[in-house]
Amino acid sequence: MSELKNDLFLRALERKPVERTPVWIMRQAGRYLPEYRETRARAGNFLDLCQNPELACEVTLQPIDRYHLDAAILFSDILTIPDAMGLGLYFTEGEGPKFENPVRTAADVKRLGVPDPEQDLGYVMNAVRLIRQELHGRVPLIGFSGSPWTLATYMVEGGGTKVFAHAKGMMFDRPDLMHELLDVIARAVIAYLNAQVEAGAQALMVFDTWGGMLSDRAYREFSLQYMQRVVEGVIREHEGRKVPVILFTKGGGLWLRDMAATGCDALGLDWTMNIGEARRQVGDKVALQGNMDPCVLYASPERIRQEVATILEEYGHGSGHVFNLGHGIHPGIDPEHTAALVQAVRELSPAYHT
């Protein structure tokens, strides 16, 4: 494997000194980029794009080539694990992901097994290997998974939802069954992330998109507990270097101290949490990633620069900040506005690292 030429991202996650604040963007390979839309059209559809290692590699590298960001993130989907469990993932235009075989009963849960990452999800591992090769050590590669709770919501609902009627229904009425489901998903997530590390991922991120929909008690029992298991179960050193783990709960500002206590290396923040306040809460326990509102990118480059300046100032001096959006970039964003964000971080952040 090539020697890493730019390790700012990994150093910031370990809160080691950096020359400037590293920056990458959630969903940085996506529909806002014309080159992504062209590749996706060649693939035929989103799922075929995810399952084609060469094309997944191509779109992973597109934002790196365009913006010279400080980290690449594997192009994939969080629902690869449930698909490999036999739930029959498909996508409908305008409606998002659906499953042919949702998990609703004890018998449904019993049927689930932990997929073999190299056999059942080999296309993901092949993509990781190819991306590492094609990056030539330019920047680190982030591997990822959905959190056990977030994956469970899709599996039980059979797709996206606003109400979580089936998932929360199972959680409240059959907590034993929900725990049984979360247990098998947690084991699958650990195996999947470890295989990504073995294939070449240099950092890991767990996306808990729907943890913020839970009550305080339910979050600790059904989401945080299982993310802690993931943190404890994944490979933390590989190729002679630490493999940092980032936990991100959208709407998770209430639980930052508890998340920091899991043993993870960094917390992702959405835009509802002031990053300076978050830093005061977690101290020097973990690094922080975030947290600009993605909608700022609809504004002028001048306004984007102001927002970058404000967030850098709120975080303050010293390492431990990875600049990012508070959630994924929206499809309608002007790519030049993303360039303005990246340029502003590059130009304004060195002052905080002298």
Radius of gyration, Cα only, in angstroms?
Answer: 19 Å
Give the overall average pLDDT.
97
CATH topology: TIM Barrel
Question: Which CATH class is shown?
Answer: Alpha Beta
* Strands ordered across the widest β-sheet: 1-4-5-8-9-10-11
The counted number of beta strands is 11
How many domains comprise the coordinates? 1
Molecular structure report:
By secondary structure, this protein is an alpha/beta fold. The chain has one domain (31-288): TIM Barrel (Alpha-Beta Barrel). Helix content is 48%, strand content 13%. It has a 7-stranded parallel beta sheet. The longest helix is centred in the middle third of the chain and has 25 residues, at 175-199. It is globular.
Give a quick summary of the entry.
This protein is of the alpha/beta class and 354 residues long. 48% of the residues lie in helices and 13% in strands. Helix 10 crosses helix 11 (175-199) and helix 15 runs parallel beside helix 16 (335-348).
What labels would you give this structure?
354 residues; alpha/beta; TIM Barrel; 11 strands
Fold topology:
Layout lengths: L7 H6 L20 H10 L2 H5 L2 H15 L4 E2 L6 H8 L1 E4 L3 E4 L6 H5 L6 H4 L1 H14 L5 E6 L1 H10 L7 H9 L1 H25 L3 E6 L7 H18 L3 E2 L2 E2 L2 E5 L6 H5 L5 E3 L6 H8 L4 E6 L8 H15 L5 E5 L9 H14 L6
Parallel strand pairs: 1-4, 4-5, 5-8, 8-9, 9-10, 10-11
Antiparallel strand pairs: 2-3, 6-7
